[in-house]
Design goal:
This protein is an alpha+beta fold. It has a single domain, classed as OB fold (Dihydrolipoamide Acetyltransferase, E2P). The protein has helices spanning about 45-50, 55-70, 75-85, 90-115, 165-170, 190-205, 205-210, 220-230, 235-240, 275-285, and strands at about 20-25, 30, 35-40, 40, 125-135, 140-145, 175-180, 180, 245-250, 255, 270.
């Protein structure tokens, strides 16, 4: 007679994702193509997210109208004003242009960081996070050049710039907004490096801010506004757009879902709504 079990054990279910099979190395090991979402950084979107400007701008226009005409009257006035000020008639074009420039810069960074002195390319070192797979089936990770550690390819010291993650490079050059999300946070030393890099990028208005101005929507702000502009009602729009709580890294105080605009981008820490109780214990977040 077959047995049955009923374990009271929490599981994290994720839907299956299609991946291209590269090869099988033995009876229980395969090599596949796996997309990686670099964590703690967020570049502007390109046209694939909400459509190219002729398609996405009307969504942003609707968002602006709703923020100003009372549709989202339960949102704090400061948030409505902050987002509305960025939702100009050219907001989609500006944001998507920034997304394309960020991709160009990223390609250059990858080439520069992965090319050895002899012209050959290094492999990419991947450092997965605590929760390694996101809802889209992407590996959540930090990436860096791979050093074998051999006599001919020694591993640099932790303070050597060659050991920096490429995530950190994109934050420091201003093409990726600092976007740390608990619990997928780096070790303290690396977190502090990222904060310092984000401070420099914001303080000197590097990258996207320099080329497209301070009014350019950050990646997550753009996605928020698209959701607010396409929602069928106020409740669902707010629910979909604001699923994270912001914490001010300068004092570890919660500013909530709707007051992130009061915190400079370089000091915003994000926590999923469902994780806030545990984050208060783990990080010392002040309610």
């Amino acid at each position: 007679m077959p047995i049955t079990v009923n374990f009271n054990l929490p599981r994290m279910d994720r839907s299956a994702q299609p991946r291209r099979l590269v090869r099988a190395t033995d009876g229980d090991t395969t090599v596949i193509e796996q997309p990686i979402r670099m964590v703690s950084c967020d570049t502007p979107e390109k046209g694939h997210y909400a459509g190219n400007p002729p398609v996405s701008q009307p969504k942003l226009d609707t968002c602006r109208q709703r923020l100003q005409n009372g549709f989202y009257n339960t949102l704090p006035p400061g948030l409505r004003e902050y987002l509305s000020s960025k939702l100009t008639d050219a907001a989609a074009q500006r944001h998507i242009n920034a997304g394309h420039r960020a991709s160009q810069v990223f390609d250059t960074v990858l080439t520069n960081r992965l090319t050895r002195p002899d012209g050959s390319l290094r492999s990419v070192a991947t450092i997965p996070t605590v929760n390694p797979i996101d809802t889209y089936g992407r590996l959540l990770a930090y990436i860096a050049p791979w050093f074998s550690g051999s006599e001919t390819d020694p591993l640099p010291t932790p303070e050597d710039p060659a050991r920096r993650t490429i995530n950190l490079d994109m934050i420091e050059n201003g093409w990726a907004a600092f976007f740390p999300i608990y619990p997928s946070l780096p070790k303290n030393a690396d977190m502090n490096r990222a904060i310092a890099a984000a401070e420099v990028a914001w303080g000197e208005k590097r990258g996207a801010w320099r080329e497209f101005g301070e009014k350019v929507l950050l990646g997550y702000e753009f996605r928020m506004c698209v959701k607010l502009g396409t929602a069928t009602d106020q409740e669902s729009g707010i629910h979909e757009a604001f699923k994270r709580i912001c914490v001010d890294l300068r004092n570890m105080r919660e500013v909530g879902r709707f007051e992130f605009h009061a915190v400079p981008p370089c000091y915003r820490l994000w926590i999923w709504n469902d994780d806030i109780i545990q984050a208060r214990r783990d990080l010392g977040v002040i309610d």
